[in-house]
Amino acid sequence: MSLLHAMLFAILQGATELFPVSSLGHAVVVPAVLHWHVNQASPGFLPFLVMLHFGTAIGMLVYFRAEWISVLRGVLGQGYAAQVQAERRFLLTMVVATLPAVLVGFVLKKSIAHLFASPLIACGFLVANAGLLLLGERLRGRKAARGKTISNGDALVIGLFQCLAFLPGISRSGAAIVGAVRRGVAYDEAAKFSFMIGTPVIFAASVLEIPRLLRAHELHALFGTAVLAAIVSGLVAYASTAFLMRYFRSHEAWGLQPFAWYCGVFGAGSLLLLLAGL
User: Fold this and answer.
1) Interior/surface letters 209-234, b for 16+ CB within 10 angstroms, e for the rest
2) Which of 36, 71, 74, 178 is deepest in the core (most CB within 10 A)?
3) Which pLDDT tens digits describe the chain residue by residue (278 residues)?
């Protein structure tokens, strides 16, 4: 893998992990459409992707550092009783929202793994992601209540929606936001909750994989490139999070529509190009 391709992958991962357009779908489709000479089946590609996800998680963790410190203080019982109780309640909702994906991933991971290697399948699911985002706009629940406290029931619904992201081309953040706004959560707060519940999952998965991957011979040849790409991915993820939080605060009326149209056009256009052999 060339340095240019590594940096492009890093930018792609850092942006699309947060934007509701599916990072996995883009990682599969973009190289195929642009004819990048990257062997995604090579033993060194998975370690490289893990490093990119680690960088992305660090970027998200840094952006929401104040929120995570507050949660930690609540867990440790520091602060006023009401604050401690609120932070512990928030942590519980994040756990509830995360559990469905953990369980579904454990059960289905091997049976759906073959889907992740097909650009044509990913294109189809990108179009499906567009439909999901548009459906989320149309099926929004009661009028969004800014400052609404996310209940455990809300969190469970969000977690179930998030499970759709096991299909390559369905956005994790997009599905979680759709689930949240369907429960009456304002867009910016839905996005914040989606980003925060994604951070520990991505971070934990990366941390668990990195020690094993560091011992793998395949990573040694591109370790320096992978570290640089992880830094770029983290910086892009931080910038993407900042942009999206501002965007969702000021576009409550049609928050997901631009991303839906993009996924529809990109997915269908890429599918036609691949079928035509261009």
Assistant:
1) bbeebeeeeebeebbebbebbbbbbb
2) 178
3) 778 888 999 999 999 988 999 888 888 899 889 888 777 666 667 777 888 888 998 999 999 999 999 999 988 888 888 888 999 999 999 999 988 888 887 776 666 655 566 889 899 999 999 999 998 888 775 555 566 788 999 999 999 998 888 888 899 899 999 999 888 888 889 999 999 998 887 777 777 666 666 666 655 667 788 889 999 999 999 999 999 999 988 877 677 899 999 999 999 999 999 998 76
| Residue 223 token pair | 């370790």
Structure tokens at 194: 């989606």
State both tokens at 25. 């779908």
Read off the tokens for 27. 């990682």
